[in-house]
Design brief:
CATH superfamily: Aldolase class I
Number of domains: 1
Number of strands: 12
Helix content: 40-55%
Number of helices: 14
Largest sheet: 8 strands, parallel
CATH architecture: Alpha-Beta Barrel
CATH class: Alpha Beta
CATH topology: TIM Barrel
Order of helices and strands: HHHHEEEEHEHEHEHHHEHEHEHEHE
Strand order of the largest sheet: 4-11-10-9-8-7-6-5
Length: about 375
Amino acid sequence: MATVDTVCNRLADARSAEWETIPEIVQTAFERLPPQVWDYSCGGAESEVTLRRNRSAYEYLAFRPRVLRDVRQRDTSTTFLGTALSMPVMLAPVGSIALFDPDGALTCARAAKSAGVAAFVGTVSSPSLEVVSAGCDAPLFFQLYLTDVRQRTEALVRRAEDAGYKGICLTVDSAVYGRRERDIHNRFRPREREKPNVAGMSTKDADLFRAGASWEDLEWLCAVTSLPVMVKGIMNPDDAVLAVEHGASAIYVSNHGGRQLDHNAATLEVLPEIAAAVAGRVEVLADGGVMRGTDVLKMLALGARAVLIGRLMAWGLAAGGQAGLARALEILREEILVNMANVGVSSVHELTPSLLRPTVPPHRPWPTDLWGRPTSTVR
């Protein structure tokens, strides 16, 4: 006799087989999530200007495709810090990922494994970093927030080392928690949930410590671990240079999904100047509104080694758990392959700025929201 879990898994597999496009997955997530959790997942800071820029920036760049090239065989594989990836897409760290699937970061890791990519596990995500690594042998990177004292931060790093994580991702764009007005209006407080990696730690004390952080903290972190350290939240080329000078092994261009500083630039806008500033000394990652294969190709053409998805990851989970996220990654790969052929490249490493040009965004023939769903579906 089938267990409840088995039946649920079969239903999730059946639903995932029905999804043929990414907007279908987003729509399913919208229909299944409680209103306050949907708002949390798609909202941004204050007026959400940064949030909108992250998505709209892609429309200001058009492709300059090349033709009559042999693209019968196309290769999406790459590496990041020596880790092999089947495609240049990884799963971003999301602290409240358990809101979208009971097993949270563990389910993400399992979906990453099935897709041949890596997952980032957050300091404030659940389950614990050890449970995730023990439950799945996908390549994992640990996203780190500086805690209230260095000893506690170093203890987290040691735990990540012992659990087999491949690198540390230090987030530096959260000196103060952003004013996310959708959550404020909904009286929704996701920060009050359980955080197994930092159980018992005062959120207030940790916030105060991060507000006083400096480049010396990055230099200290790089000195206390043998793992490569990347810096997440870089939006200024001067800071990218400083990060490299203080020991960073990679730069992660991110504005925290538009959830921290309103009226910030889009990550796509600053990516070229940051890639130019580091001048190949370290690898560059980027996130920010990535929803389609064309988004991935544009990021790579402008200097990113790989991109990370956050909201799409959460919505894949909400739509169908591991099967939903795996299907989202599968569709994303299909889009990358199709658009590589039509741009005229057979490898993701052939993408360069010469394949892009500035353009004027098209007029939309029908009203849609940021994620391509008809606005009539918005609560």
